[in-house]
């Protein structure tokens, strides 16, 4: 067989990792496999969406679909189809009770569609975040957060109008030069890379830890004239530091999954503040801010609105927005000192 060398280390697939985590979480109690089934549906969805994204140009799937979503934004063709893929897979998994999608005006109560087979998990998700970047071939991603229904509930909107700290898992799949799932079930953060040749997500980034301090800031500075003073002052402090400190580098892709992915791996700070134009910020609390804040904290970083921990905010509507600053612990603390002034 020539020079072929079998892998030196044990290969851990996402499915195996989730099963292992399930055993650990259950702590000797019987493992039902329900969460594993749910995660399997999610990872299959990600594989389908990654295939759609890769072939979008070839299959004439770029451009707008001719409709607008609840935010009044043009829906891209891939937004619409990714949402359908995800909703169908999660309903069919039999493990979901409530679904909230960026692309659906109302929450989907699964028992209304499939009374016989509902589960105990509520999923909040953005099927294809950053879709305005698709036509330029820039990284996009699927973001998700998972709650369990509350005791006695068979699934209602109240099960998702809860603070992010009550999520049992969160993650994203980034469709970039490779497809990467980054997942936390509340015991740290692990990253998996899709090996297209075998169709499996393989553990490539175990126990991701955000460096305590970074050297990169990530914000849409085109909005600078609308910023409130704490943001302007903080940015000045990292762009014009007292020597011998060096100024930070700016990196802003405009695709949250990609900007957060880089922040998790390299450190620094990602910001989408509230400003004079967007008084609540832009990013959606349930399916953008909460999952990313969950991951940031689980990786040893921080996530704040400037006033409080993101994961402590209680949403009142499913498509609510909130400001968010996340990343390296020391960088976020520096920013907070300007809010306290
Ligand atoms: P979308 O959900 O409509 O794709 O918008 C969310 C995206 C995020 O991925 C990104 O962080 C942000 O919008 C960028 O916004 P802006 O162009 O205002 O900087
Ligand atoms: Mg989005």
TrEMBL record:
Keywords (A to Z) from UniProt: Carbohydrate metabolism, Hydrolase, Magnesium, Metal-binding
All copies of domain Fructose-1-6-bisphosphatase class 1 C-terminal, residue ranges: 210-338
GO cellular component: cytosol
PROSITE patterns reported in the protein's UniProt record: FBPASE
Broad class of enzyme this protein falls into: hydrolase
Pathway this chain belongs to: Carbohydrate biosynthesis
InterPro entries: FBPase_C_dom, FBPase_class-1, FBPase_N, FBPtase, Fructose_bisphosphatase_AS
Enzyme Commission number(s) of this protein: 3.1.3.11
Catalytic activity reported: beta-D-fructose 1,6-bisphosphate + H2O = beta-D-fructose 6-phosphate + phosphate
A biological process term (GO) from this entry: fructose metabolic process
Entry's Gene Ontology molecular function annotations: fructose 1,6-bisphosphate 1-phosphatase activity; metal ion binding
Complex formation: Homotetramer.
HAMAP family registered for this protein in UniProt: FBPase_class1
Name of the protein this chain belongs to: Fructose-1,6-bisphosphatase
Protein species of origin: Malassezia brasiliensis
Lineage start: Eukaryota, Fungi, Dikarya, Basidiomycota, Ustilaginomycotina
Gene: FBP1
């Amino acid at each position: 067989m020539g020079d072929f060398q079998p892998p030196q280390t044990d290969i851990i697939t996402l499915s195996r990792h989730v099963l292992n985590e399930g055993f650990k979480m259950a702590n000797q109690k019987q493992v039902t496999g329900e969460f594993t089934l749910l995660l399997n549906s999610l990872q299959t969805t990600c594989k389908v969406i990654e295939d759609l994204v890769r072939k979008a140009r070839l299959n004439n799937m770029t451009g707008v679909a001719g409709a607008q979503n609840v935010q009044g934004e043009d829906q891209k063709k891939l937004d619409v189809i990714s949402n359908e893929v995800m909703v169908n897979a999660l309903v069919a998994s039999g493990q979901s009770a409530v679904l909230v999608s960026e692309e659906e005006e109302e929450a989907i109560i699964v028992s209304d569609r499939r009374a016989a087979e509902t589960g105990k998990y509520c999923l909040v998700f953005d099927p294809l975040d950053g879709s305005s970047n698709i036509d330029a071939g820039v990284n996009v991603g699927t973001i998700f957060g998972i709650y369990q229904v509350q005791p006695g509930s068979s699934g209602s909107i109240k099960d998702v109008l809860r603070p992010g700290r009550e999520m049992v898992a969160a993650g994203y799949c980034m469709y970039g030069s490779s497809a990467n799932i980054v997942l936390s079930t509340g015991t740290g953060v692990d990253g998996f890379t899709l090996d297209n040749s075998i169709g499996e997500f393989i553990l490539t980034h175990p126990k991701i830890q955000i460096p305590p301090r970074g050297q990169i800031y990530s914000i849409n500075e085109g909005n600078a004239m609308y910023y409130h003073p704490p943001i302007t002052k903080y940015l000045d402090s990292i762009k014009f530091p007292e020597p011998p400190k060096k100024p930070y580098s700016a990196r802003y892709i405009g695709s949250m999954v990609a900007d957060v992915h880089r922040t998790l791996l390299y450190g620094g700070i990602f910001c989408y503040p509230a400003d004079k134009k967007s008084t609540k910020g832009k990013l959606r609390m349930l399916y953008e801010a909460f999952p990313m804040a969950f991951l940031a904290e689980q990786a040893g970083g921080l996530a704040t609105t400037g006033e409080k921990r993101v994961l402590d905010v209680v949403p009142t509507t499913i498509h609510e927005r909130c400001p968010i600053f996340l990343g390296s612990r020391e960088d976020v603390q520096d920013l907070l000192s300007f809010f306290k002034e």
